[in-house]
What does this fold into?
Amino acid sequence: MQLTISDVFKRFGSIEALRGVNFDAEPGEFFALLGPSGAGKTTLLRIIAGIEQADRGRVLLDGRDVADIPVRARDTAMVFQTFALYPHLSTFENLAYPLREARIGSNEVKKRVGEIAEMLRLSHALSRKPGTLSGGEQQRCAIGRALIRRPRLLLLDEPLTNLDAKLRHDTRAEFKRLHRELRDTTIIYATPDQLEALSMGRRIGVLREGRIVQIGAPQRLYTEPLDEFVASLVGDPPINLIAATLADVGGNRTLQLPFVDIDAAPWEATLSQYPSGARFMVGVRPQAIAPAADAGEAAPGPEFPARVFLTEPLGDVTILNIVAGADQRLKMVLPQERAYGIAKDASFDCTLRNDEICLFAQETGMAIRRNWASPTT
Ligand SMILES: Nc1ncnc2c1ncn2[C@@H]1O[C@H](COP(=O)(O)OP(=O)(O)OP(=O)(O)O)[C@@H](O)[C@H]1O
Ligand SMILES: [Mg+2]
It folds into this structure.
């Protein structure tokens, strides 16, 4: 189903929950809605589902205004953030509930419940009540109940929030499989977790205080965030943000960071409007900092001295918390085998990978485009 959100506003008393939201999702698309707590995700999903009315703006399903479509004919299902199963009913009856409501015959109910239970790996638990299911099984039961009427639009509100880390990991993979199997069901998946959004969404809309600040493919958000907010939200550990000043050094425009100077030429198309002395924030991903000794021939960047003050080994990688130059704290990430032997107080030279640096205007937080930046986002 094609979904169009056009200029949607919603206010609760003095709180402006949605302040002009616009986006489209294509039939069969997996669209992630990423935003911190309070950004307006649930409000937006409830409006799409037709449970809540927008103050202004329109929601179109296949080009028809949702307000004009009777609830039963909307072909939309929502899995709520706090999913509620009927505690006195078995898994089978929980799954069957929407079909019974629609007065579907019992043979058909049996068949459809069997299919959905198989797909969601619940066949073993059909006779049990929700209280005896694991968290993941309960979650899948709630999802099954939403899917059983074969909605063409599926709204998922933080469906993994109540699961432990391992189960989240497995269920993420399961959602991707589910999406492939459902083919033309459009999925809108709301989450505050960037990893979930990046790993599952074909596109991601970043919601901040009731507005979409950027829509794009995962890689695009990561490499070309439109502002500091998106840059900080996407990526783990979070991007390093470092204050910098534009300067003229021997006729070359240079960004002066507290611990190193970098060539401003890659942004000059935009920076030419800024005078020397203008202030910026430089964004450097922890993955874009490496020991100078490792940089090799690939895009050697400027070097600076660093000292380790904390190591966080995570198994496959280690996060190094370093002091660059005199007192700039940064995080960098190294593969575990490379970090082996690097301890607190170790000192070595580092480099920044030039082509992975992001630049933001200090006052507005908006990205300064690179000379080669893609034309639109
Ligand atoms: N019924 C309501 N009455 C008053 N304020 C509300 C109501 N529903 C939502 N809000 C407010 O609107 C804003 C957006 O809330 P919403 O639940 O949509 O956020 P969210 O992105 O889903 O957050 P979370 O990740 O915590 O679930 C919040 O400031 C919230 O307090
Ligand atoms: Mg919510």
Notes: Residues 12, 15, 17, 35, 37-43, 81, 192 surround adenosine-5'-triphosphate (ligand 1) (CB under 6 Å). The chain has two domains: 3-233, 240-361.
